[in-house]
């Protein structure tokens, strides 16, 4: 590997996406010394760099709303706080609703969001069309909208956190893959890497789609499944009007402005689990059907490019955050099922507090990985 590893670390963070660098920064900012972060590739080169970049607080789970709202505050002042522009745009998120059940569900969600300070609201079909002029309103009953939501550049967020963490003394080691975790007498003792061994008393797993393997090294079950999601970017759209980040909730088809064109995507119910990062055309007919129905104006726009990334999916589409009961000082923050990037800033704060034995700003105990063994899943409904 050609570099000297630290002789020991107080804490080793495994994973260099937004979650890992946020955690490393928050630990170092709290005065934790000898923080080491490992990633097998360049920082942010896993799922973070392949995210759609959406940031929103419109969720159904109270804790997710609180984590997302806290993160939105950080994104809003990221440039002044970290000296890194993240190209934050706030056109709002617009969920298009075409069934009475969805409308009722979002009315309940909006009530909880409002209670927690999120300025979301149910809007009429007419207002939805004004917020997203490219849509067809056929079959729509209502929509949910929050003006504080938007999108930014994931790679820039990673750069900002990484630079700040390094300035505070954290040691970030991209291109240095972790290969195992040593556990002695029920406690974390060291992390092994492709470049050698790092003795440590604490490991924090922020490895995203690769977290199940990392947990297994320590004998911890992290039920995370990798699932490919694909994104397309269109050619420039002439006279593109201002438009909200638009999601057709019934189909999960979504789009937002990306430069002179649009970024768009959609879930594929036929996708099978695995570490697949190649692009496939199998999902395109279903995407075309959703587009023709909900945004027919886009059917004549060419595709300029695209990519595939990985969701880290849990059985209830909610995160795994906590500390393993059977292995002392093994902590984890993973399984965000597609909303990890937007929650990264807040989760960094939470993991700092869990490490220091402090009470986090929101109660994440319900996200403990052991909930599935207790049949205590807590489904997140607002997933894309």
From TrEMBL:
Protein keywords: Oxidoreductase
Gene3D superfamilies, A to Z: D-Amino Acid Oxidase, subunit A, domain 2 (3.30.9.10), FAD/NAD(P)-binding domain (3.50.50.60)
Entries under Pfam families matching the protein: DAO (PF01266)
Domain of life: Bacteria
Domain FAD dependent oxidoreductase intervals: 11-354
InterPro entries (UniProt xref): FAD-dep_OxRdtase, FAD/NAD-bd_sf
Protein name in the entry: FAD-binding oxidoreductase
Taxonomic source organism: Actinomadura luzonensis
Taxonomic classification: Bacteria, Bacillati, Actinomycetota, Actinomycetes, Streptosporangiales
């Amino acid at each position: 590997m050609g570099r000297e590893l630290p002789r020991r670390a107080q804490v080793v963070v495994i994973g260099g996406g937004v979650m890992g660098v946020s955690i490393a920064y928050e630990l170092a900012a709290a005065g934790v010394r000898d923080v080491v972060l490992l990633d097998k590739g360049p920082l942010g080169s896993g799922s973070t760099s392949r995210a759609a970049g959406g940031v929103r607080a419109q969720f159904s789970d109270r804790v997710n709303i609180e984590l997302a709202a806290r993160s939105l505050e950080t994104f809003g002042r990221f440039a002044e706080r970290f000296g890194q522009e993240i190209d934050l745009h706030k056109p709002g998120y617009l969920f298009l609703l075409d069934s009475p059940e969805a409308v009722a569900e979002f009315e309940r969600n909006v009530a909880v969001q409002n209670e927690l300070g999120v300025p979301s609201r149910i809007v009429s079909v007419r207002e939805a069309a004004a917020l997203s002029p490219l849509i067809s309103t056929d079959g729509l009953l209502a929509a949910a909208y929050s003006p504080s939501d938007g999108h930014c550049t994931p790679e820039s967020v990673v750069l900002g956190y990484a630079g700040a963490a390094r300035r505070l003394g954290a040691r970030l080691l991209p291109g240095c893959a972790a290969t195992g975790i040593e556990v002695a007498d029920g406690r974390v003792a060291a992390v092994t890497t492709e470049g050698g061994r790092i003795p440590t008393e604490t490991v924090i797993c922020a490895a995203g789609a690769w977290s199940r393997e990392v947990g297994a090294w320590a004998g911890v079950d992290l039920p995370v499944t990798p699932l490919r999601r694909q994104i397309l970017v269109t050619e420039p759209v002439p006279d593109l009007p201002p438009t909200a980040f638009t999601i057709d909730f019934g189909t999960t088809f979504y789009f937002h402005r990306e430069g002179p064109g649009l970024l768009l995507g959609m879930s594929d119910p036929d996708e099978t689990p695995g570490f697949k990062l190649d692009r496939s055309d199998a999902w395109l007919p279903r995407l075309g059907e959703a587009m023709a129905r909900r945004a027919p104006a886009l059917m004549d726009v060419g595709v300029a490019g695209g990519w595939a990334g990985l969701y880290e999916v849990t059985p209830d589409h909610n995160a795994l955050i906590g500390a393993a009961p059977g292995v002392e000082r093994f902590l984890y923050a993973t399984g965000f099922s597609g909303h990890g990037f937007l929650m990264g800033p807040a989760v960094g704060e939470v993991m700092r507090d869990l490490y220091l034995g402090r009470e986090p700003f929101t109660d994440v105990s319900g996200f403990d990985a052991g909930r599935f063994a207790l049949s205590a899943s807590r489904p997140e409904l607002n997933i894309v």
